[in-house]
Design goal:
alpha/beta; Rossmann fold; 4-stranded parallel β-sheet; 4 strands; globular
Length: 138
């Protein structure tokens, strides 16, 4: 407490990156359900979590984003500008995901810390192997 004012620590807003795109709708649905369970676990632990997959999967069913990754890249960057950290969920498909690789690159451009969590939402004690292979080259 400082003087008569109580100092309240602002909780960090976590951007939760995860794979989504796949030609098979069942794979997209499984990824959506999986990341929802991870986000819920983190939220129960007290984190503020923003997951574009959990928040936008139902909207994507209306085909409003048929522009593909170009739309999502701009959308995700805008969301990330409001976040304090990016957490990458290392669930199946994350290494091959164009979106996850781009989100890691955008986090770097925005100077946001990037942390890696297991596919079950547990913190990893070290960065995944071949982290440098996730960089996007143009």
């Amino acid at each position: 407490m400082r003087g008569n004012k109580v100092m309240i620590e602002r909780k960090k807003l976590i951007y939760l990156a995860s794979p989504y795109s796949d030609p098979c709708p069942a794979v997209r649905e499984d990824r959506f359900l999986h990341i929802c369970s991870v986000a819920a676990k983190l939220m129960r632990a007290g984190y503020f979590v923003l997951s574009p997959i959990a928040h936008c999967h139902a909207i994507d069913a209306w085909d409003v984003t048929s522009g593909g990754w170009g739309y999502w890249a701009e959308y995700d960057k805008r969301l990330m500008q409001s976040c304090d950290e990016v957490w990458v969920c290392c669930m199946q498909g994350w290494r091959d995901s164009i979106g996850v690789r781009a989100e890691i690159q955008i986090a770097g451009e925005l100077c946001l810390p990037v942390r890696y969590i297991s596919g079950h939402g547990e913190p990893l004690t070290h960065a995944p192997k071949n982290k440098n292979s996730l960089r996007i080259t143009t």
